[in-house]
Write a sequence for this structure.
């Protein structure tokens, strides 16, 4: 099944909003073996919407439209759908009664705008939306399935998952069967990943291919199978081969994030963790805490941004700060020691660096970052020499810190 | 001038990459009064690229294509451009010499893939790329300006800003003049923003309009002028009126982030800040540190995630934790007191809550968050009752904390 995604609204065209709705939809459709042919953002002009629907329907089996629904949006999408379907609007009593009942329950007053929302194009199927008042709408036109969803992400997602997905499974003509597997690596570049698995790639059976998706400090290896070899046992066999060839660089599969992999290994080993951060300013801790359940192993830490805080919270020696500087191996070692001492954690990580873009010296240019990690009995240090982009330096250092902790426990 | 943006590559269609390139381009083109008509993502199939260029060129004055360039991408975009232009490829000696010289300088070995990169469609203008080896390419076809950029964000941005922008300014036929102003508010919902400025909106001169762009805890008010009233003095007048009507809820304008506004007010008042975070896990500190120059006022803080850390780092009383619980007004007050004491900061903020999705009780459901902020002489507390989404709860609490600190110093 081939699909197109259309986003309606000015925010994306003005560059004021990143289109995460389309990414979410594309990801979820891909998991259903739907092939996305194009993702389009257009303005909320009626004629543009109709024209796009006409254009896309000739080549797509499914079109998903998001946005342009709801009381303040003038419901332009509904009007465009009616024009595209060459039909009139009707007043949906059932929907109106539901909204009325809901508003009475929560004690809100129904407005004229809400009443107008209940006018829908004749011939559509209303898909339930338990997260708001704008409905999902579904219909077929000349063999193309069309789904219209509101633009508010949690409403869009709810309708898709609960009201549309069962329907999709019933209409989805799979065409060429397709399967994906994703292997997530960290601490190794794209070319080195490729070199390590080249032999396996050369012997892949027909229909299987590999793509590399590089991120900051991470590379995802995506194995795709199309056709007769798109079978779970074939995929698992080559996923295992690739994983073995990549060894320790692999931290997880599919949608597992590095911070989740980190939690898994700490919980499995029954160890606790604390952090001491200068240049990353709490980013390592925040990443760790973003995972539900992190309190099982993460005790907390210190954001010792100023020298004073490094002394007070972590007991870094004043002479170390004066003689070696805040960005030095000795400082991060003392930060780590103080952290392990004061927190009582089994394992810790300490970071100090010059995130930039200012603050560099000839000796210690912007992007110099020192890390120390380990336990009371076994400490390691590492120096990074990064670029001038502050946000990138912070994010990259966070990835390195989490990976060092992961490897410390897996070795 | 009307423009289309086309992104080439599978990652977006598979939902594995959010298309931030298009957002950046749309934002930068909008600032040049270019009107974006559509943003399209397509696969890297040659025929799809050619077809899209043909389709879009009939209605767009400018098409910007990103992606599908570079040694590992098989340079499909170049081949598609040549087919669209109905021209052949030539070997660009100048480009080859430049790449050779660069590789000699950094001591890398030139590969065959790099040599192949120097084949370009006849008739294009090569735009310099100081960030990599894939060139920008520019040409006109039947009156439409076409720009091709690599997909790597920092290369794309560099070529656009340095090699293309001067060219754009010379070819840009402005059409209807358009101006934008953005007023950024925090701590007030969309409907209340609208109620506060309704009178001003009713009296806006012809061609001026207002749009609301809601985010988590924040609403951006965008004032747009098209036509004869698109003049700076008219815009400034109404921007001032709107700002005055919105009062303290306004923290900044245009692209200013809340964390930048926070730094500005602390630096202006000459005060220092420290943070004590439980459920936000360092996110408040990380946001603060993400702004360059934050060391001028931010000392650091404690990520006191476990009860032990609350006791050790901040001196929260054991009986408070037992009797009132870690998520309580008394706990955040003691966290704040301990923080101000140990850090020596003028002002502090302390947060403790249940981020979810687990960990709630009937008394303290998921989403219960306590904040305390202030100085030694003046403390405030606030209880939030949020939803069940962990990431959203952390981000929203971070916004509230930064806003409370901002207002504490501005009042």
């Amino acid at each position: 099944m081939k699909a197109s995604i259309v986003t309606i609204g000015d925010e994306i065209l003005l560059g004021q909003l990143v289109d995460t709705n389309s990414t979410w939809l594309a990801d979820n459709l891909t998991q259903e073996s739907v092939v996305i042919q194009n993702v389009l953002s257009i303005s909320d002009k009626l004629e543009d919407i109709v024209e796009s629907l006409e254009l896309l329907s000739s080549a797509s089996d499914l079109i998903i439209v998001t946005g342009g629904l709801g009381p303040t949006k003038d419901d332009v999408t509904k009007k465009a759908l009616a024009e595209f379907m060459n039909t009139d609007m009707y007043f949906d009593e059932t929907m109106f009664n539901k909204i009325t009942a809901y508003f009475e329950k929560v004690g809100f007053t129904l407005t004229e705008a809400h009443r107008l929302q209940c006018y829908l194009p004749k011939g559509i199927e209303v898909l339930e939306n338990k997260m708001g008042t704008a409905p999902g709408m579904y219909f077929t036109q000349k063999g193309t399935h069309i789904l219209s969803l509101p633009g508010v992400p949690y409403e869009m997602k709810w309708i898709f998952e609960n009201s549309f997905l069962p329907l999709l499974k019933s209409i989805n003509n799979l065409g060429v069967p397709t399967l994906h597997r994703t292997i997530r690596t960290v601490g190794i570049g794209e070319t080195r990943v490729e070199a390590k698995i080249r032999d396996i790639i050369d012997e892949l059976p027909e229909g299987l291919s590999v793509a590399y998706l590089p991120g900051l400090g991470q590379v995802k290896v995506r194995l795709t199978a199309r056709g007769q070899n798109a079978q779970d046992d074939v995929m698992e066999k080559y996923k295992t081969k690739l994983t073995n060839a990549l060894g320790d660089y692999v931290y997880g599969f599919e949608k597992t994030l590095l911070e989740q992999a980190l939690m898994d290994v700490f919980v499995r080993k029954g160890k606790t963790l604390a952090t001491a951060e200068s240049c990353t300013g709490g980013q390592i801790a925040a990443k760790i805490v973003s995972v539900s359940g992190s309190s099982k192993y993460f005790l907390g830490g210190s954001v010792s941004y100023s020298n004073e805080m490094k002394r007070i919270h972590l007991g870094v020696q004043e002479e170390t700060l004066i003689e070696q500087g805040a960005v030095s191996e000795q400082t991060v070692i003392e930060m780590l020691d103080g952290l392990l001492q004061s927190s009582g954690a089994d394992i810790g990580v300490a970071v100090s660096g010059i995130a930039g873009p200012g603050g560099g010296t000839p000796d210690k240019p912007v992007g110099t970052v020192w890390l120390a990690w380990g336990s009371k009995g076994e400490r390691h240090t590492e120096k990074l020499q990064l670029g001038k982009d502050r946000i990138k330096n912070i994010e990259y250092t966070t990835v390195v810190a989490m990976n060092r902790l992961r490897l410390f426990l897996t070795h």
